[in-house]
Amino acid sequence: xxxxxxxxxxxxxxxxxxxxxxxxxxxxxxxxxxxxxxxxxxxxxxxxxxxxxxxxxxxxxxxxxxxxxxxxxxxxxxxxxxxxxxxxxxxxxxxxxxxxxxxxxxxxxxxxxxxxxxxxxxxxxxxxxxxxxxxxxxxxxxxxxxxxxxxxxxxxxxxxxxxxxxxxxxxxxxxxxxxxxxxxxxxxxxxxxxxxxxxxxxxxxxxxxxxxxxxxxxxxxxxxxxxxxxxxxxxxxxxxxxxxxxxxxxxxxxxxxxxxxxxxxxxxxxxxxxxxxxxxxxxxxxxxxxxxxxxxxxx
Length: 299
What we know:
The protein is 26% helix and 28% strand. The protein is built from 8 helices and 12 strands. The model is unreliable at 112-127 and 280-299 (pLDDT under 50).
């Protein structure tokens, strides 16, 4: 199996004083995902939870949505010319009757750890249709519960402690209990690993849950949440405009700049229980003049 961390000797400078010391880096290696022996994509990831990553990727792409649709996942032996196993090639066998991925899903280039959409054949392939709706999910949470999630996520990050270089995604229930946490150099991979775990455990659709991510909320992370049936996505940093548009379109609650007791709720604020005496007034200028104030306050 690939290593999650890699040791490295570095020159450290502190106030002009040089010294050599060991450092620990987050591992990054390519992983090829095959379906039925046919290459589908290559992603740069941190080794670990690779089967979850492959399964979650297929959920995000609309290939599967239930555990019974996956007949098996294995590492491919003979992945090298000498017949060795690199543990960097994963083959997913779909159950009988489950259609293979459409050719339009194939990536033109490998997926980097920083950009899950690089090399997409077309935008239409990104806008996959979810097998269920999150709009009707009755989840309600308090601001206090949301405020506690970043610290709970951070406390569960084991590899981050030694490297400081990994993103994390955590799935929480409506009471704030951590159901699953995964780390990766790519934020989209961390989410796929969480979604894949939920698929393999028979937890999809993940109704009544909160997906908490370190970093920003991109269009693809919103898509992955919707495809998994998660009604609320929270991020410690900013969302993109396209992420907000997709969240609004699908009925997902999107929370950004979740830091301490502060947060910005961009869509479906009715799921945030602010109390009976608090009135939320969204004025007509919320998309214009208020934008700069929201960004400034969030920072």
